[in-house]
């Protein structure tokens, strides 16, 4: 069974004119929420060498990935950054997912709303609003590859909040 975790970044600094949106960092609550959600996920899932992590290159998304990945026992130096996920429409995020190699059985994507929530709804035909640090867990048939993933082809199994 192929698994997809779609994770929204943790709570970040409020937008301001002194810093570009892309450079906003997590606040303490964002760090704590990321730890809490990662611990929930790891209680239900074990990750292995067939796991891939892709993160938006924006500070707050990458920082969330850096916090969660050690809990998943995934090396932070193997996180792939994808600028295409930042401020992306759900179909643009799906294009990144569709390029994932066939040997990957579990994919974890860190990014932003509204694109991530829209992506979950598009893939599963179920409404899901991912708040900060929330994660959606989706499954799809093992004979299906990430390149074949499209609208209404996955099942929303759980939202971690």
UniProtKB/TrEMBL annotation:
Family annotation (Pfam families): His_Phos_1
PANTHER family membership: OS09G0287300 PROTEIN
Entries under CDD domains matching the protein: HP_PGM_like
Lineage of origin: Bacteria, Pseudomonadati, Bacteroidota, Sphingobacteriia, Sphingobacteriales
Name this polypeptide is given: SixA phosphatase family protein
Domain of life of the native organism: Bacteria
Native organism: Sphingobacterium populi
């Amino acid at each position: 069974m192929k698994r997809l975790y779609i994770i929204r970044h943790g709570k970040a600094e409020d937008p301001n004119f002194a810093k570009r949106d892309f450079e906003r960092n997590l606040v303490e609550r964002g760090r704590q929420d990321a730890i809490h959600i990662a611990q929930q996920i790891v209680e239900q899932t074990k990750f292995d060498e067939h796991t891939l992590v892709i993160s938006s290159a924006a500070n707050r998304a990458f920082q969330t990935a850096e916090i969660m990945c050690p809990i998943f026992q995934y090396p932070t130096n193997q996180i792939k950054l994808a600028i295409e996920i930042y401020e992306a429409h759900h179909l643009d995020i799906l294009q990144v997912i569709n390029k994932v190699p066939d040997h990957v059985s579990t994919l974890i994507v860190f990014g932003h709303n509204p694109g991530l929530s829209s992506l979950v709804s598009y893939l599963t035909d179920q409404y899901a609003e991912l708040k900060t640090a929330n994660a959606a867990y989706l499954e799809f048939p093992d004979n299906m590859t990430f390149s074949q993933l499209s609208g209404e082809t996955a099942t929303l199994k759980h939202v971690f909040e």
